[in-house]
Amino acid sequence: MIVGMVAWATFSGAIRGAEQSKSTLAFERLASLAGEWKGVQDGTEIQVTYTLTANGSALMEEFRPKNGPMMITMFSVDGDHLLATHYCSAKNQPQMATEVIADPQAKSLAFSLVRVTGLSSPGDWHNTGLVMILEDPDHLTQNWTYLSNGTTGKTVFHFTRKR
Questions:
Q1: Which of 87, 83, 86 is nearest to 58 (CA)?
Q2: What is the pLDDT of residue 73?
Q3: Residue 76 and residue 155: Cα distance in Å, rounded?
Q4: Are 74 and 95 in contact (CB under 8 A)?
Q5: Which residues of 15-51 are buried (b: 16+ CB within 10 A; e: fewer)?
Q6: In DSSP terms, which residues pair with 81 in a beta bridge?
Q7: How far apart are CA 134 and CA 79, in angstroms?
Q8: Dihedral of CA 97/103/109/110: which sign?
Q9: Is the pLDDT of residue 7 over 80?
Q10: Quick check: 12 and 92 in contact, CB under 8 A?
Q11: Ramachandran area for residue 26 (φ above 0: left; ψ -120 to 50: alpha; else beta)
């Protein structure tokens, strides 16, 4: 009887320990992007590759415009938030975070600027936010916002998974 109770307590604890946080579940949804994607923005072809790295704890996005410099964005979990650090061709690094993840199955994830490193001056062009919209397993939209010399703007990218 006592052995059975100890075994049940151990089993129950293992199940509770295996439950994943909402932020981990949201990251797993984002990690489902792993693979190659393509899009066109203002006539420029763009190739995007998502790769899980660091033993599955980070998702790396490689953003390659056909005739432009490659950029990288790294996504990871930080407590009850997701983080995105963008290594920009403007030679700065906006670091953005989501709000507390409430619904890990939400269609979109919104990242807002926390801080930016690498600016020569506060007015330099830099990204201030990113919304990742996972339309379905084969379609992704990214809404980027930016700030440059006091002027804000938005760039929208649409991507389709390569087959």
A1: 83
A2: 98
A3: 23
A4: no
A5: eeeeeeeebbbbbebbbebeeebebeeeeeebbbbbe
A6: 78
A7: 22
A8: negative
A9: no
A10: no
A11: alpha
Residue 36 gets which letter from DSSP?
E
Domains of the chain in sequence order: 21-161 (2.40.128.20)
The residue with tokens 């993840």 is: 101
Q: CA 24, 28, 30: angle at the middle one, nearest 5? A: 115
In 42-125, the DSSP E strands lie at 44-53, 58-65, 71-78, 81-87, 93-97, 108-117
Q: Convert the pLDDT of each residue in 92-135 to its tens digit.
A: 999 999 999 999 999 999 999 999 999 999 899 999 999 999 99
List the beta bridge partners of residue 87.
Answer: 72
Three-class SS of residue 3?
A: helix
